[in-house]
Amino acid sequence: MITVRVMLVDDESHARERLRRLLREDPTIQIVAECESGEAAIAANESLRPDLMFLDVQMPEMNGFGVIRAIPKAELPLIVFVTAFDRHAVEAFDVHAVDYVLKPVEAPRLHEAVNRARHRLEQDLPGRNQDALADVAAREAAADQTPQDEVAPDPGGQERSTDRFLLRHDGNLHPVLANEILWIEAHGNYARFNLPDNRTYMIRSTMAALESRVDRSRFARIHRSAIVNLDAVRELQPWFGGDYIVILKNGARLKASRRFKARLDRWILG
Fold this sequence. Notes:
about 30% helix; alpha/beta
């Protein structure tokens, strides 16, 4: 039986540890690398050229499809997607991934995925999947091109605001009251929620979508990449070109661009 050289890619350390522990039950599996980001996975793939990559779909900065897009087609390994979000199942099989495994990963399901990968390797099939992987990853990129500059409708047409968010951290879901949030900032296709005591949560969303969910009597979009809780603002400092520096009570400093200045002005003037 052939040895399968495996790379684990997941931003959550406990998820990688679980995969590592389960895969080590198979003596024909050789784990050649573990990566906590898409960028690290791309670099490791170039130098190590694994047979199989267990790839998390949802990661900060660069998601699983971004990893596929960034790897030259001829160097793509077989892919097993590992994620907590089953809405990606169609895309995963559409890119001819070997398999699609949901978190928390169970041993029988994981070994089934490994066996599928082993069969493809023994049949010398990896090259047949590379065109499909590259093609659908490119289509996924087009679907993700939601401009960060998009602006939600004015408050007059606003739907009912959300008073709490259910945010994921280390594989668990945490209810967070909206008034706990100090500010939200964009990170590529993700948004980071910043809370007191340096707590942060990442979710996949656009700023416009989040702006439409918060209470705009209490939150203001101050920049294409920032929404701030007005109750957390300590002072505003005028800056060049009509911009502001927004200083929060915890000392954080955010830039308010001229484009979104009208919202701060309405708050200042009451």
